[in-house]
Amino acid sequence: MTEETIFSKIVRREIPADIVYQDDSVTAFRDINPQAPTHILIVPNEPIPTLNDVKPEHEPLLGHMIRVAAELAAKEEIAPDGYRLLVNCGRHGGQEVFHLHVHLLGGRPLGPMLAP
Ligand code: AMP
Predict the structure, then answer these.
(1) How big is the chain by its Cα radius of gyration, in Å?
(2) What pLDDT is stored for residue 1 in this prediction?
(3) Do residues 19 and 27 lie in contact, with contact meaning Cβ atoms separated by under 8 Å?
(4) How many Å lie between the centroid of ligand 1 and the Cα of residue 34?
């Protein structure tokens, strides 16, 4: 069984978070350490540790996460200027929380894709 992280507690509303969207399969909440004016994390309600653990049956869920991210970008009024979706995977990817999540970042020009 997948080990739980703090994100499962947020999904179950056991610890506080600024949840901006939730449905039967995903939860979205504001990042506690925002890197841009809009910085939201979209997570599956059932934890998947990393992209390396994604199975074919997860494809609809991942598509849904991305669609929710795009809808939230529209709601945050950052869609016309553009934004960035980011998934960190594993150690080299800089992943800190091992519960798959898509970062939605926007609200300012984000610069080059990678830090120098
Ligand atoms: P990553 O490096 O892709 O694993 O990103 C993990 C993100 O989770 C970071 O941007 C953290 O700031 C964010 N984070 C960690 N704990 C919390 C929390 N309790 N509520 C909201 N965001 C969090």
Answers:
(1) 14
(2) 64
(3) yes
(4) 9
Strands 102-106 and 38-44: antiparallel
Q: The domain 6-106: what is its CATH number?
A: 3.30.428.10
Largest Cα span, the chain: 41
Query: pTM for the complete prediction?
Result: 0.97
Q: How far is the CA of 77 from the centre of ligand 1 (A)?
A: 23
- Distance (Å) from CA 82 to ligand 1 centroid: 22
Comparing C-alpha atoms, which of 5, 82, 74, 90 is closest to residue 43?
Answer: 5
pLDDT number for residue 106: 98
Question: Is 103 an annotated catalytic residue?
Answer: no
Retrieve residue 38's tokens. 């809009």
**Given the CA of residue 98, which atom of ligand 1 is nearest to it?**
4
- What is the mean pLDDT of each successive set of 10 residues along the chain, which is 116 residues long? 90 98 98 98 98 98 98 98 98 97 98 84
Closest to 42 measured CA to CA, from 55, 53, 33, 29: 29
